[in-house]
Amino acid sequence: MLCHEFKLYENIFIESNLQSTDYDGVIVILYPQEMNIGLPRHISSFVDKISCLDKHVSKVPTVWNCDYVSGGRLVLAPTGKITPYHDVKVIMETAKKGMTRALDAGMKKPLLVVENVVNFPDSQMVCILGALEAFYVPLQIREKQENRNFIRIGLHAEEKETELFERIVRNAIALERSRIFTRDIAGGDPERMSPCKVVEFVKNSFAEDSNITVNVIDDESVIETDYPLLAAVSRAASHVDRHKARVLEIEYKSSDPNRVTETVILVGKGVTYDTGGADIKISGRMAGMSRDKGGAAAVAGFLKACSILKPPHLKVVGVLCLCRNSVGADSYVSDELIISRSGKFVRVTNTDAEGRFAMADSLFKMSELALKELNPHIYTIATLTGHARACYGSYTAAMDNHSARATNHSSKLQFSGSRVGEGFEVSIVRSEDLAVNNGKCKGDDLVQIDPDAKCRNHQLAAGFLIKVGGLEDKNIKYTHLDIAGSCGMPPEDPTAVPVMSLCHLHKVLL
């Protein structure tokens, strides 16, 4: 039997007996008949009968009195029709709905039947992740009150599958722990997760892991000298200690350095609140801007997964670029000319394009570091542009530089996303997306954003990062992930993208 020690999910068991007295109800996912996924034998006939009684059973989750299962209660959660255009996310969403319905029915010890779906190779892991997501309670609620919404969770597998299933469960729990860590940071309000609070939260989480080292850069003079673009964004907030900019560097090292074959470097946008600065957000668009740290949260989440699963073949460096884009007498404003860490003169053109500034100097630093590393790949992860959301809805825009594109990297990431239920759209960075960032006035090397370039806004943001990060000519693989549409906005919980996809692609899982 597998038991997990994490305090939020401390009682998770593999269970082969659907009539075990340890549970107070069973959840079964109903798949379309054409998929030929059989139900557990002794409840199949029961489901056939009630399907004749109420056709609604194939449309929404329902609860039934059933003597053939643990607790005498059976939750049926239908996927609905699954077409060739669906990916495994349909199973994740159904499992979450089914578990939510069980909790609403008052179950405290639910048992979930996890079927293997041949069409989706990672379906069992994704199903478990969907069910576990139903238990998530935001950090600030957990901190203020006891909110234990379960006593025991069971995951049903046939006895012949137990050894393989145990590994699947371990992966799912590790990923969910990482996603919880990501959600807690991304979803914390502007005070609970101010820059100094994020630093404290991350340091405490990694305090006992010998594979992880944490370096905090918070000296104002160092920030101003080494991270001038970040310092500009933070200027109006720098008079308030808890909102001062911080750069948080997290490094994961394999226990066996000789086995390392790849270095993953991630830089995350950690704007703990974005007012828009002097170009202040209007028309009610400021609400929800505490989620503008979702990129940094995802970087921390990926490091958490590495901390738990200990991939021997990876070295990972994560950078959280933490600041607050406040408005005030000391705000940075358009027309300022700032020399970046890369030595380029950058003209400010819109203070609400602060995300690329927050990451730029750390990205350049990491591009220099990458030259010394084995098989490096750099990512930036950011809630960067409303344009990405307008183009792709709730999917992540993935953009490669020339070196990463030569390996078809974003397409590989898109494939990994399809395996774990996170959607990506591959967007191409073209020559004009770099050129549009060139300075317009004498002496300018770059502009922060071209206000007249509206059609390719998220691509030109990637172009800016490539140029300011020194990645235009270096043969270093780099991918920019714009998660503005996929990170989850209030009232929804943060989605923790793209932690699962990165773990799948870089073989972090057991």
Residues in helix, %: 25-40%
The biggest beta sheet is recorded as:
8 strands, mixed
Q: Compute the separation of the termini in Å.
A: 18 Å
Low-confidence stretches: 1-8
Global mean pLDDT: 94
Number of helices: 16
Strand order of the largest sheet: 7-8-10-9-13-17-14-15
The structure class reads: alpha/beta
Mass-distribution shape:
elongated
Strand content: 15-25%
User: What's the Cα radius of gyration?
Assistant: 24 Å
Description of the structure:
It is a single chain. The chain is an alpha/beta fold. 35% of the residues lie in helices and 19% in strands. The chain is built from 16 helices and 17 strands. It has helices spanning 41-53, 89-104, 123-133, 139-144, 162-187, 195-206, 220-226, 228-234, 294-309, 354-370, 386-392, 402-406, 409-420, 431-435, 457-468, 499-505, and strands at 12-15, 25-30, 62-65, 73-78, 110-113, 153-156, 212-217, 246-252, 262-274, 314-325, 337-339, 345-347, 376-382, 396-400, 424-426, 446-447, 477-482. It has an eight-stranded mixed sheet, sandwiched between helices. It has a six-stranded mixed sheet with strand order 1-6-5-2-4-3, with helices on one face. A three-stranded mixed sheet has the order 11-12-16, covered by helices on one side. Helix 9 links the parallel strand 9 (262-274) and strand 10 (314-325). Helix 13 (409-420) packs across helix 16 (499-505). The longest helix is centred in the middle third of the chain and has 26 residues, at 162-187. The relative contact order is 0.11.
